[in-house]
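Consider the following input, taken from an annotated entry for Probable cytosol aminopeptidase (Neisseria lisongii).
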Amino acid sequence: MEFSTKAEKLQLEQVQAALFIYRESEQPENETAQLIAASLEDGQNFAETKILIGGRLQPVAVCRLKNTERETLNRAAAEAAKWAKNQSEAAVDLSAFNADEAAAVAEAFAAAFGNAAYCFERYKKDRKPAKLTQAAFFSSHAAEVAAALSVAEAQVFGQSLCRDLGNAAPNECTPAFLAQTAKAEAEKLGAGVKILDKDYIQKNMGSFWSVAKGSVQEPYLIELSYFGAADKNEAPVVLVGKGITFDTGGISLKPGLNMDEMKFDMCGAATVIGTFCAAVKLKLPLNLIAVVATCENMPSGSASKPGDVVTSMKGLTIEVLNTDAEGRLILCDALTYAEQFKPQAVIDVATLTGACIVALGHDVSGVMGNNQELINRLLAASKTVDDKAWQLPLFDTYKEQLKSNFADLPNIGTPGAGTITAGVFLSHFTEDYPWAHLDIAGTAWKSGGEKGATGRPVPLLLNYLRNL
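Applying the prediction step yields:
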């Protein structure tokens, strides 16, 4: 989808469909928009109609904003996007706003339009491509709006890549497919790529290998690199993603109901790849590394068994009490791998625990870590773009739940605080750098009639990187 900005005044007869956005305390300048706005009742913020112009019926809509806070903008933009996606082109009037406000409104509405236009019909015989292909934003503050649209375009690009990977069928989106796609997308943007295969993983990453060895699909460790800082030796930010392309639970087999959704267990990896590519697309002035551990978790004669003891890349031994707690087993080795980059910060992203859904539901990602400044930056970024996250504690007392009679660590704790004990497990492998963990089990995809990957938390992470 293409976004553009125009410095002139919006003329209804020159556009296909028009949307006028204005503050609740004011009225739109356009007379037609004023008439539509007058029809809004209390509690209503959006109205649409069609008017006859030049012998054709032209869609015109208004959107009334209480304020320009991002949560308000996102909610209003989502409603407007339902209308916009049914238009081939949309013209958006921002004449009611100053430069900063116009940029904020443009970014939120462009992102909403782009995400609303997204469709995944790769496997359908009769495909219906998105109708909305262009959106033009009219404002006298063209430079500020154009900059905001670049951000929105990059975010939509990253989210769409994330969603494409998440929505792909697991017989297509194998670890090899994930590695090949990451390589292709990164190289298109001029970023560096390094792919490590089964031989490296088996030799060096015993915890990762313990999960991967049950599948006929070979595992991969994906490393993407971008050096956009003025000082190419500046400590990078490292994003680490969990890429279980299908999770049966292994020998600790999951129930069959809704197991098809376990193709989404690689959405942490998809988020990291999407965020990395969006950041490179924006040419952000920082050094950035993405590390993705990807494999399947399958039951077989070669799969790990409950009670197995494996040795991690860090040298800590792990008693595998439940093979369905596999995400932390691949992440711990990926987090150890990240040490070599001497990072300024490491953020891992994973659909790690169903307990996070119990704690926070489907609208909020869990965040925890060993560095409060890093966590605060992530929470601020989440609030700025309304990609919600909430901090959970990592008190030392939770470490009491992770004790094994036979190894340095078990891979699960005692019942209760499942999301936190998963984070505590990972904390043993992140002691040498600032680290934060995002559990996106509740936010990475939707079930039911809207089943599909959401592309979250790409907005949160991209905003964090933009503000470093």
